[in-house]
Design brief:
The chain is of the alpha/beta class and about 350 residues long. The protein has nine helices and 14 strands. The protein starts with 6 loop residues before the first strand and ends in a 7-residue tail after the last helix.
Length: about 350
């Protein structure tokens, strides 16, 4: 594709997500990274120089009003997702907003109302679901290779962050559930193919900030299907997910961000394990391929003026709404059973 035909992206924020997208966007032909913005002009210039980004905007407002930007990538902390997504949509930009989309269902409603009003597309940035291993796992389960699904379990832990990080700010939508547990909730709903009828939660809250440092949750779906997960910001890093059925089980060692390409999935039946190597010819052979494939899908939606979906056809708007409802229910239950101390 000619450079002049590519969709032009601008990123809000200079944090570590900037590095992910700066490396991922060149993997596809559909888009270019034109600009980055910060509330600190010098920080924006430094980030642009380091990443070879043509434009550095000294404010978020400046970037969303840049007439040459087609797509805004909102990589700010959770507490700023709603405000700047709504403002970008109102400015006529399509928005790819990092997960979780917002801090509440009220904010999600506001964001999609803005998208419909402006006739622009909005996608929540759950990049993991665009990795080919997810589509392959779903295909094998749909083909009956593990029988009827009984149980889904997953975990994600990532410790070592300092207290100055927005993930520890309650008003900024911080906490383990919103930061990393949202992946497990999304994963469980995806493979269950339904919304949970009942949820349970228990958490360890930070005494100073009041955010959940570790949260375990259970989702109970119809037909006897259940899902359990643990997320933590205070534990040794760990990642895994498993779907267990009546005739076998499927293990995904790292469903969120596989450290190598291609990725491996393990299928066990009758005591024998088969290693399935995920090699897809239409995916760039890079560990940041999920980010690239997600943006490629979004670019196609923008060009063809059609609603974003999962690769397997799940409506992205309804998925975002459903995910936020579950997150709210889990956090409400966790706080009810283990009150959080500390300031709001």
């Amino acid at each position: 594709m000619r450079e002049t035909d590519k969709l032009r992206c601008g990123i809000l924020g200079t944090g570590w997500m900037l590095g992910k997208y700066a490396q991922a966007i060149p993997l596809i032909d559909d888009a270019i990274l034109l600009a980055v913005a910060s509330r600190d002009a010098e920080r924006a210039r430094a980030a642009a120089s380091q990443r070879n980004i043509p434009r550095a905007h000294p404010s978020y407002e400046s970037l969303i009003n840049d007439p040459e930007i087609d797509i805004v990538i909102n990589a700010l902390h959770n507490g700023l997702h709603c405000e700047w997504t709504v403002r970008a949509l109102a400015a006529g930009k399509h928005v790819l907003c990092e997960k979780p989309l917002a801090c509440s269902s009220t904010e999600v409603d506001k964001m999609f109302t803005a998208a419909h009003t402006s006739r622009r597309w909005l996608l929540e940035g759950f990049m993991y679901r665009f990795h080919p291993q997810m589509a392959e796992a779903k295909r094998r389960i749909a083909a009956g290779e593990i029988g009827r699904i009984l149980y889904i379990r997953s975990h994600r832990a990532a410790g070592g962050r300092g207290r100055e990080n927005p993930r520890f700010w309650r008003d900024a939508g911080g906490g383990a559930l919103m930061d990393i547990g949202c992946y497990s909730v999304n994963f469980s709903r995806f493979f269950a193919g339904a919304e949970p009828q009942r949820v349970e939660a228990n958490a360890h809250f930070d005494e100073q900030t009041g955010v959940d440092l570790t949260l375990s949750g259970s989702l109970h779906f119809g037909g006897g299907v259940s899902a359990q997960f643990v997320c933590s910001m205070e534990a040794e890093p760990s990642y895994a997910a498993e779907i267990i059925g009546t005739e076998g089980r499927l293990l995904i060692p790292n469903p969120w961000s596989p450290p190598q390409w291609p990725a491996d999935v393990q299928l066990t039946r009758q005591g024998k394990t088969e290693i399935i190597r995920i090699e897809m010819p239409d995916a760039p052979p890079h560990i940041l391929a999920p980010f690239a494939l997600e943006l490629k899908h979004f670019c196609r939606c923008v060009r063809e003026n059609r609603a974003p979906q999962f690769p397997v056809g799940i409506d992205a708007e309804q998925d975002s709404r459903g995910n936020m409802r579950v997150l709210e229910a889990l956090l409400e239950l966790a706080r009810a059973t283990g009150p959080a101390a500390g300031p709001r």
